[in-house]
């Protein structure tokens, strides 16, 4: 592993407040396809508009439900990787570390990270159109008309408790994440293409308020120039080396 720049190490040693935004890239080494990787990305075989929108669910609830059922199984078979564990370890010795994720796979929580801010919801939770969140699959009401289970409370169709395109992010969670970025001494952007606002704006907000910006990504992103330090490589390799 190449040596890290001295300035980076210095900043990390002195940092009281660290904000971290993660995206699909941190879960790639756990076997979960990212969204935009040409070969394996979810979107390579289908477009967001066709699946991750309320309109898509309205148009074809079973197609959308089945796609998320497929992804839920992928997530259930996946395990956190060394990158997730490194961030959980970092939380133990940084006084104020705020972990913000765009991912819906619970892998940060399963690696032991506390108080994860999930901007886009969680694939293990479902809800109905009246926002009745239903955790236990055993409580889902079977439906053979549409082929999508219904809410035990109001019989409306269930859907993933996930933020789709065109839907508003959970306000309290987003505001908490934004406040942490504004106060951060150091901000990490890990495994995200930075293409989806408003989550993607958070590292930029941190940097605009004086944070030292670090990008961890296998590739260049269109936000790369915003960061003081770009660590090119897999997060599962870089993060454990950084959080020794
Ligand atoms: C909102 C949940 C406002 C779903 C996701 C037109 C209509 C409506 C809205 C819009 C519109 N135009 C623009 C918008 C805004 C819209 C948007 O961004 N659209 C896109 C298409 C441009 N945003 C929204 O709609 C958001 N809401 O704006 O609301 C509003 C206000 C009032 C009233 C109504 C609305 C909501 C967006 C949330 C969408 N949901 N996910 C699901 O999971 O199925 S977004 C989805 O993409 C993911 O969740 C993820 O969060 C997001 C970004 O993807 P990444 O995580 O970055 O993954 P990606 O594959 O892109 O990149 C992976 C990176 O990792 C790459 O850079 C790769 O190089 C790197 N990598 C790979 N392997 C590794 C690695 N790095 C390190 N190590 C490795 N091993």
UniProtKB/TrEMBL annotation:
- Where is Zn(2+) annotated to bind? 128, 151
The reaction(s) this protein catalyses: N(6)-succinyl-L-lysyl-[protein] + NAD(+) + H2O = 2''-O-succinyl-ADP-D-ribose + nicotinamide + L-lysyl-[protein]; N(6)-acetyl-L-lysyl-[protein] + NAD(+) + H2O = 2''-O-acetyl-ADP-D-ribose + nicotinamide + L-lysyl-[protein]
Q: Which domain of life is it from?
A: Bacteria
Q: Which residues bind NAD(+)?
A: 102-105, 191-193, 217-219, 235
Q: What is its EC number?
A: 2.3.1.286
User: Which positions does UniProt annotate for substrate binding?
Assistant: 68, 71
User: CDD domains, alphabetically?
Assistant: SIRT5_Af1_CobB
Where is the catalytic site?
120
Q: Where in the cell is it found?
A: Cytoplasm
Keywords of the record: Cytoplasm, Metal-binding, NAD, Transferase, Zinc
Required co-factor(s) are: Zn(2+)
The chain positions of domain Deacetylase sirtuin-type read 1-244
What does the note under cofactor report?
A: Binds 1 zinc ion per subunit.
Which residues are the signal sequence here?
A: none
The record's NCBIfam families line, in alphabetical order, gives:
PRK00481.1-3
What does this chain do? NAD-dependent lysine deacetylase and desuccinylase that specifically removes acetyl and succinyl groups on target proteins. Modulates the activities of several proteins which are inactive in their acylated form.
Family, similarity comment: Belongs to the sirtuin family. Class III subfamily.
- Domain comment quoted from the record: 2 residues (Tyr-68 and Arg-71) present in a large hydrophobic pocket are probably involved in substrate specificity. They are important for desuccinylation activity, but dispensable for deacetylation activity.
Q: What is this protein called?
A: NAD-dependent protein deacylase
List the source organism: Herpetosiphon gulosus
Name of the gene: sir2_2
């Amino acid at each position: 592993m190449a040596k890290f720049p001295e300035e980076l190490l210095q900043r990390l040693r002195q940092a009281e407040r660290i904000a971290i935004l993660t995206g699909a890239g941190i879960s790639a080494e756990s076997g979960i396809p990212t969204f935009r990787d040409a070969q394996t990305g979810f979107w390579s075989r289908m477009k967001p508009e066709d699946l991750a929108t309320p309109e898509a669910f309205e148009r074809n609830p079973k197609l959308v439900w089945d796609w998320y059922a497929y992804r839920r199984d992928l997530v259930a078979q996946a395990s956190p990787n060394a990158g997730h564990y490194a961030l959980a370890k970092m939380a133990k010795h940084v006084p104020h570390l705020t972990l913000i994720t765009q991912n819906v796979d619970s892998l940060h929580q399963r690696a032991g990270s506390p108080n994860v801010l999930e901007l886009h919801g969680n694939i293990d939770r479902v809800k109905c159109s009246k926002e009745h969140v239903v955790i236990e699959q055993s409580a889902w009401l079977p439906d053979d008309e549409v082929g999508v289970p219904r809410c035990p409370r109001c019989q409306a169709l269930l859907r993933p408790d996930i933020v789709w395109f065109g839907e508003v992010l959970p306000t309290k969670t987003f505001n908490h994440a934004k406040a942490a970025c504004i106060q951060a001494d150091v901000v990490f952007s890990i495994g995200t293409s930075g293409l989806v606002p408003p989550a993607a704006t958070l590292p930029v907000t941190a940097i605009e308020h004086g944070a030292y910006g670090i990008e961890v990504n296998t590739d260049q992103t269109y936000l790369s120039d915003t960061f003081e330090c770009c660590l090119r490589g897999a997060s599962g390799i870089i993060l454990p080396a950084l959080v020794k």
